[in-house]
Amino acid sequence: MRAESPAVPHTLGRAAPTPDGMRRALGSFATGVTVVTGLDGEDEPVGFACQSFASVSLEPPLVLFCADHRGRAWPRIRASGRFCVNVLAEGQAGLCERFGSRRGAKYEGLGWDLSPWGTPSLRGVLMRAHAEVYAVHAAGDHDVVIGRVLELETEIGAEQRPMLFFRGRFGVDGAPAAPPALPTGRFTWGMGDLWG
After folding, report:
1. DSSP 13-54
2. For residues 15 and 13, what is the distance between their CA atoms, to the nearest angstrom?
3. Contacts with 20 (C-beta within 8 Å, 6 or more apart), sequence order
4. Global pTM?
């Protein structure tokens, strides 16, 4: 015999979570860290740090990432129609900082290669997924981007550990590296603050 479920009202008189509350609570879900790269309409390389990346489907091969649609890089990548998701290794916090900031030239002094698919490939990463934009769904202040995978490169950094982001810091064991700080001293990378 099952207990009757009471009707749940649309609101229980409680306030919806704030952005800071969302960031704190959802920071308990450890994620990998990626850099999404592409070329803009004038063949300039662009990219941004992104921790919201996942596999969607095996047939057809689809992946997704989420990008702030107010950002500067994502609209330029979207217009080109192709992108590369570079999965970062544990020791690549410098790449995360470089692509997670709105400051500076992302590719200045950085070694990278142009893939056969016309996407920037970062060196020394764990894996690369080259894809074309398959669908884009607006969701709040972000776009959910579905990409059809064109090629996977998986043996690049096979012996390295992944970069993980957990509770506002890199790593989950030992003494994790402190995340990059903004000029104000307040760290805000994560949950899409500077993505796109």
Report:
1. SPPPPPHHHHHHHHTTS-EE-EEEEEE-TTS-EEEEEE--EE
2. 7
3. none
4. 0.77
CA angle (80 as vertex; 78, 86 as ends), nearest 5: 70
Residue with tokens 């398959």: 134
Residue 5: both structure tokens together: 């479920």
At 132-183, the pLDDT tens digits run 999 999 998 899 999 999 999 987 766 788 887 767 767 767 544 454 443 3
Low-confidence spans in the chain with pLDDT less than 70: 1-13, 26-30, 157-158, 166, 169, 172, 174-196
Structure tokens at 162: 């992944």
**What's the rounded Cα separation, in Å, for the pair 43 and 113?**
13
Q: Which helix (H) or strand (E) covers residue 152, if one does?
A: strand 142-153
Helix/strand/coil (H/E/C) assignment for every residue in 44-84 = CEEEEEECCEEEEECCCCEEEEEEECCCCHHHHHHHHCEEE
Pick from 125, 170, 175, 171: nearest CA to 152: 125
Task: Check residue 162 and report its DSSP letter.
Answer: B
